[in-house]
Recover the amino acids of this structure.
């Protein structure tokens, strides 16, 4: 709940925009927010930080964060939800600042290596070519799938971009289900597991792309399974999706991990996810 400006002074004095509804004027009023932007706001996507030319053109985590500090908040922090990468960059920059390591090196040393996640990579150039599946895309109105290029940013982005396998993702989610331990070794404290998997924006009308799911601190958490993508899940199940249509869930109620991985754009993931999770959950009854 710390204010971001406590750790990153460049955020001091940040203003929020208020649209002037006098249609004879296109001016936007700028006012001081009632509450400061917090680290929690950044992690649960309620920060209101906009994507700007400065943030989109950044070449490092720090550069993108400094561009965000020069921007104007789109709303009162904590009052609305919008998925985006600006807040996650702020959180990653804090990791870099206090660890003295790059965000990628920190993850590798503290999480990936201890879990034995040897098939997880940060950048496209690091992935062995013989291990990389094709990336497919289908435009609206076309039936044929086409091989498409991979997204390849100039730096490792904390808001997405890992290359991994089902086995490696299982190790990570099993550690989370175990309360921070894996094969007898503790990687995270109980608090570091409980906070990211506890809903923090449940008071909002919308808190995630999936209905009746809400953001915690990074993960999405199921409040009620009413969507095809939450088929078979219990309240409290947590997970996340990927831009290629992959989705992973961990369900503490029955100690189950669902890993659905694919690598294509242009089709609805819901029918396949519903079928997959429905079969697995039915088999456990």
């Amino acid at each position: 709940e710390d204010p971001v400006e406590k750790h990153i002074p460049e955020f001091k004095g940040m203003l929020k925009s208020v649209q002037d509804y006098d249609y004879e004027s296109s001016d936007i009023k700028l006012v001081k927010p009632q509450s400061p932007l917090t680290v929690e706001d950044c992690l649960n996507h309620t920060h209101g930080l906009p994507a700007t030319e400065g943030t989109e053109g950044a070449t490092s985590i720090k550069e993108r964060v400094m561009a965000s500090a020069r921007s104007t908040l789109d709303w009162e922090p904590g009052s609305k939800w919008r998925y985006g990468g600006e807040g996650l960059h702020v959180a990653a920059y804090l990791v870099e600042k206090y660890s003295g390591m790059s965000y990628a090196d920190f993850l590798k040393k503290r999480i990936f290596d201890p879990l034995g996640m040897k098939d997880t990579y940060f950048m496209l150039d690091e992935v062995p070519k013989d291990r990389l599946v094709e990336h497919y895309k289908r435009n609206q109105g076309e039936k044929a799938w086409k091989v498409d290029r991979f997204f390849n940013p100039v730096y490792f982005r904390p808001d997405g971009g890992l290359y991994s396998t089902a086995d490696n993702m299982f190790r990570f989610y099993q550690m989370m289900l175990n309360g921070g331990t894996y094969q007898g070794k503790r990687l995270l404290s109980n608090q570091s597991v409980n906070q990211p998997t506890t809903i923090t924006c449940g008071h909002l009308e919308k808190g995630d792309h999936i209905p009746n799911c809400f953001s915690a601190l990074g993960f999405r958490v199921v409040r009620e399974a009413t969507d095809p993508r939450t088929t078979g899940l219990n309240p409290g199940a947590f997970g996340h999706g990927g831009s290629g249509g992959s989705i992973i869930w961990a369900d503490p109620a029955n100690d189950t991990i669902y890993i659905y991985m694919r690598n294509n754009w242009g089709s609805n993931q819901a029918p396949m996810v519903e079928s997959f999770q429905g079969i697995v959950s039915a088999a456990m009854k």
Observations:
- Residues 4-99 form one domain.
- The chain has a mean pLDDT of 93.
- The chain has nine helices and twelve strands.
